[in-house]
């Protein structure tokens, strides 16, 4: 059964885990490898026929491995359906063995010819990318690199690209692009959903996803390890039930948002408003005194406390202490700035015993002076994660799973590593968000996320649950806000009414 990206499986695997599932299917369930290859080709061709229903010119680029064998069998089916098919091989296919060699021979027996790859523009209506499968773990070089360049050049001219199992050049475990990678319109993947399709560079290269389990029984997956769980709407509906009729504001927590230094009041206001829209019963703001009056006028539901240039002065310190004592949880960092004002607030927040959601300028302070603490959520983007770990941003992007897990262990925190395919690392599990869109890559989106997470935690979710479902609702809101007017030009404030709707999944 082929599924759209809205209905992908719940569990996500790395390359080795999918390889183990594949071997188990063959060795323990008695299905021949070539039979699985035929099923994969049939599933891929079904997707091809649905997305490109009018036969035309098809070029299949195949490597010598099993992924290339899949491509040869897809090309064979396309040829039988009336496509004008050319199969090209950048590498010597005499090195092919086993099921792959059998697939290439089947293509020849059906009347197909295999041509050496020629470094010139590809003239086609559709390209089938079957160069690399899930085993790639080094930079792409030589003729395969040239073939990828030609595929992407053709894609830029409007030629359709269908990748088999994963876009060639993408690491199936991490989503890293190994030097260069195919940019596909659609990728059809099999047996187990690979993490690399959904995070890092993979999310941009693999296009729309279709999944087929190739007839695998449920027993194949029982007790087998996985790397992550996808966050789904079913999970959300369970986490956010309809409120009881007798609920009052005290049941829904009190969030204190700390930040908004001079000239940066908008950041903490967005965090505070999103906490309200996520359902927090009360939200207070500790910000620079320049912003408190305007913020209260613009959003009277916020209880704003303006603090002077020296927030450690006795009167200011007493007012901040009162706010902290009344809070269920503190969100700190947006607009905190880099000066002494932000330093003083950060130190006071750290001294408190309240759970924390830490973002932006607070994360940069933590990177400079790491501390041990419990009961907190860190929400870094890759650059902030790199500073927290002492890694380069490129290293974080290349292996987001290791980065998220290492942060969670080093700081004893729940970690939401933002970006395409946001990962939430909890003490026991890794969660993956497959919602969201490129329009959300704009300043202020992270401030909203901080508020949503804080709002959920204040309402009684565990910190892990708040991070998981805060990330998911934030992403759903971004997708909803982009529907009518598009992704480009999307503003964080556009998401606020959508956050409210997505935080009520049980609504009629």
Concise synopsis of the structure shown:
This is Bifunctional NAD(P)H-hydrate repair enzyme. The protein has 508 residues and is an alpha/beta fold.
Q: What share of the residues does DSSP label as strand, in percent? A: 15-25%
Give the biggest beta sheet. 12 strands, mixed
CATH architecture of the largest domain: 3-Layer(aba) Sandwich
Spatial strand order of the main sheet:
8-1-10-19-18-17-16-15-14-11-12-13
Give the total of beta strands: 19
Low-confidence stretches: 1-5
Rg of Cα set: 26 Å
Mass-distribution shape: elongated
CATH class of the largest domain: Alpha Beta
Bin the helical content.
Answer: 40-55%
Average predicted local confidence, pLDDT: 95
User: How would you name the CATH homologous superfamily of the largest domain?
Assistant: Ribokinase
Which structural class should the secondary elements be placed in?
A: alpha/beta
Taken together, the total number of domains comes to 2
Number of helical elements:
18
Could you please say which CATH topology of the largest domain applies here?
UDP-N-acetylmuramoyl-L-alanine:D-glutamate ligase
């Amino acid at each position: 059964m082929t599924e759209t990206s809205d209905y992908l499986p719940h569990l996500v695997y790395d390359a080795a885990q999918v390889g183990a599932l594949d071997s188990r299917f063959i060795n323990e369930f008695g299905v021949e490898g070539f039979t699985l290859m035929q099923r994969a080709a049939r599933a891929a061709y079904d997707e091809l026929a649905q997305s490109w229903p009018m036969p035309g010119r098809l070029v299949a680029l195949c490597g010598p491995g099993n992924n290339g064998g899949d491509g040869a069998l897809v090309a064979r089916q396309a040829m039988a359906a009336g496509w004008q098919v050319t199969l090209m091989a950048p590498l010597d296919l005499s090195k092919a063995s086993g099921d792959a060699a059998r697939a290439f021979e089947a293509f020849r027996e059906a009347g197909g010819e295999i041509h050496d790859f020629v470094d010139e523009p590809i003239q086609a209506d559709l390209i089938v990318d079957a160069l690399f499968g899930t085993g790639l773990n080094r930079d792409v070089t030589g003729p395969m690199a040239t073939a990828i360049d030609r595929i992407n050049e053709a894609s830029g001219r409007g030629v359709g690209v269908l990748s088999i199992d994963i876009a060639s050049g993408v690491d199936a475990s991490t989503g890293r692009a190994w030097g260069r990678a195919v940019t596909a319109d659609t990728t059809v993947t099999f047996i187990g959903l690979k993490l690399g399709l959904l995070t890092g560079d993979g999310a941009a290269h693999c296009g729309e996803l279709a999944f087929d389990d190739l007839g695998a029984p449920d027993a194949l997956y029982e007790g087998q390890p996985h790397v992550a769980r996808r966050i789904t709407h079913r999970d959300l509906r369970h986490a956010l039930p309809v409120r009881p009729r007798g609920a009052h504001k005290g049941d829904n927590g009190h969030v204190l948002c700390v930040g908004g230094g001079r000239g940066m009041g908008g950041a903490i206001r967005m965090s505070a408003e999103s906490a309200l829209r996520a359902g927090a019963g009360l939200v207070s703001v500790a910000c620079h005194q320049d912003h408190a009056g305007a913020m209260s006028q613009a959003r009277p539901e916020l209880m704003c406390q303006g603090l002077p240039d020296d927030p450690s002065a006795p009167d200011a310190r007493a007012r901040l202490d009162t706010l902290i004592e009344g809070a269920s949880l503190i969100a700190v960092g947006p607009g905190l700035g880099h000066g002494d004002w932000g330093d003083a607030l950060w130190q006071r927040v750290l001294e408190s015993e309240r759970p924390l959601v830490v973002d932006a300028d607070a994360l940069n302070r933590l990177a400079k002076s790491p501390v041990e603490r419990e009961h907190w959520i860190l929400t870094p983007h890759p650059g902030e994660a790199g500073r927290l770990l002492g890694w380069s941003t490129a290293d974080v992007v290349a292996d987001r799973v290791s980065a998220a897990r290492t942060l969670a262990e080093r700081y004893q925190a729940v970690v939401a590593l933002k970006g395409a395919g946001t990962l939430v690392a909890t003490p026991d599990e890794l969660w993956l968000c497959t919602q969201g869109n490129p329009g959300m890559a704009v300043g202020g989106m992270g401030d909203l996320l901080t508020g949503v997470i804080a709002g959920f935690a204040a309402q009684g979710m565990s910190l892990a649950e708040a991070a998981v479902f805060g990330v998911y609702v934030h992403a759903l809101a971004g997708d909803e806000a982009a529907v009518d007017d598009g992704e480009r030009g999307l503003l964080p404030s556009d998401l606020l009414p959508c956050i409210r709707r997505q935080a009520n999944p049980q609504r009629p």
